[in-house]
Amino acid sequence: MKNFLLKSLGFFLLLVLVFGGFEWALRRIPNDYNYKATYYRHHDKEIKIWNVGSSHAYYGINPDYFEKTAFNGAHVSQSLDFDLKLLRKYIRRMDSLEVFILPVSYFSLFSRLDKGAEAWRCINYSEYPLTQFGLRKNLRIFGDQAAFDRAIEGLRGARNDRSCLENGIGSAFRYENRYVQLDSIAAVSAARHKKSLHRKIMAQNESYIKQMARLCQKHQVKILLLSTPVHQSYYQLLDSTQLAITRETCHRIAADFPHCHYLDWMQDERFVTEDFFDADHLNHLGAIKLTQYLNDFIRDFSENKE
């Protein structure tokens, strides 16, 4: 019996060693999340303008075009609950933070990352780390079926999954690679972004925005709620009820907090077809344009709210 227990213990420890080695190898692979976590560790006290958000901000806000030190903390499909978790984790350490930009898109109030088709992305937030429950959300080895192949590549140093630039903006949506015919992709995107009006999720997401507004108020940080520009081919297909709830909620929250403002730039006529990568994302030149307009607004907003 004693030998059996010793052998079982030895086998268990071997499994822990093997799985631990694969997990370590997966964690060695550069990606946007461990890059940004490392950036915060070294530069959090320097950041004066910080945005979070989903792909609309990840590809749409270029921190190099703000007058003050800025960083893009958005990720593809990042939902409001993760925006809140990031703000809670870092705002106490961001001594210089003046403006927090919180994008609120057409779908933001009606969805959560962990409840949708891209829930597999939740594991990425263990790089910060952010509090989550479940092995699949905390150990990369359990994250997907290709984990072992990726671990081997990680051990060989042959894989790099980082796609953001040093300032945090996504690098893929280039002007020269933009979609020329937007109508068909607009229909696909609008249909994907149409959500069930689930009251519990809506209430939770509204609560997340209010909690972020209160945190910013506590730390004397101004907050901008931002609905980024979208192409007309996408906008005309949006559900009017879902759109109205989004706008009404953002206007109401902005009215309740004196340090908050809502920028509804979805139909801003300053943005033309050439500024878009697809029907609801800006390309890299459109991102420069948006950031320059944000910079101008922040300058005036800061002076008027003093």
Share of residues in helices:
40-55%
Give me the CATH superfamily: SGNH hydrolase
Number of strands: 5
Separation of termini? Answer: 75 Å
Radius of gyration: 21 Å
CATH topology grouping: Rossmann fold
Structural commentary:
It is a single chain. With 306 residues, the protein is an alpha/beta fold. The protein has a single domain, classed as Rossmann fold (3-Layer(aba) Sandwich). The chain is 45% helix and 7% strand. The protein is built from ten helices and five strands. It has helices at 2-28, 32-43, 55-58, 80-90, 147-156, 183-193, 199-218, 232-235, 240-256, 284-305, and strands at residues 49-51, 70-72, 99-103, 222-227, 260-264. It has a five-stranded parallel beta sheet. The radius of gyration is 21 Å and the shape is globular. The model has no long low-confidence stretch (mean pLDDT 89).
